[in-house]
Amino acid sequence: MTAPEADPQGRTPAGRVRFATFNVLHGRPMRDGRPVPVPAGCRPQAPLVHAVASLDADVLALQELDHVQERSGRVDQARAAAEAAGTPYWRYASAFPAGPATGPGRVPAPDGRELRLYGPGGLRQGAPGAGESVASYGIALLSRLPVRHWRARRLAPAPVPVPLRTPGRRGLTVSRDEPRAALAAVLEGSRGPFTVVALHLSFVPGWNVRQLLAVRAWTADLPGPHVLLGDLNLPGAIPGAVLNSPAWTGRRGSRRTRSGAAVPPPVRGWRDLARRPTYPAHRPLVRFDHVLAAGIEAGAATGVNTPRTAVSDHRPLVVELPL
Q1: Which helix (H) or strand (E) holds 207?
Q2: Which of 35, 66, 106, 304 is the most buried (most CB within 10 A)?
Q3: Burial (Cβ within 10 Å: 0-12, 13-18, ≥19) of residue 128
Q4: 111-134: pLDDT as tens digits
């Protein structure tokens, strides 16, 4: 088989799609593992948009994005990232609306059980009267390829707090989990439609496994191949083992929804395509960020990379696939 011809300007070869996942830590500049201010004279979003543009990804999953929050200059980070990446098809999803915050943190709004979803064309889902001016925190999925169908889901938080290491603080901080969101899109590839899933799972051990299995079931009816991108808060080979685990069928040996409809069997044959550590960014030791795929031949992934950027405590993870 002939290798795809290289582009002299470094762009993705024809017939291949460049995927990336990046936990951007709300675009916070970092140096040697410590937060630093945005450079003087720069707009608040400048470090984030430069980092996103540098990836030149055709499909990009972003986690820990702020939406019009004070700590990040009240910028719509998803929209800024989409413009920088040249991705006309995108959605931002948040299960964590935020109230007014005067400090560097965020305050959950009373309607924290809602899922908000918006992108080009305005609000797609949310509370009556809600809009793009509501401060929140979430994920985004950006694409240069046309999108046939979007899907979004809220993932409930773990019920108990756990100790967590926080950038810029010494030791461990007892933290409550946050509601999460998952996004799925059916894209038009050069070889036909395929599904991309973007998510950011809980940091609570066991609960993130439960969330990953829920997402696997939730996307089982979408067309393959399937590509899953995100910060899963699960190290190493664990996500692949979870995704390839047998489905629980219950005592009767079949799985059905509450309405009685049959549940599609889970997608199997997941491959871990990019085994590179991404955390912490200044000295990567752990694989929390993953690109996994089902329906992709072994050895099909190329261009695996974890480039340095000026933002976040994670490095982005990049891979190219023939889709």
Answers
A1: helix 207-218
A2: 66
A3: exposed
A4: 456 788 889 965 555 543 444 677
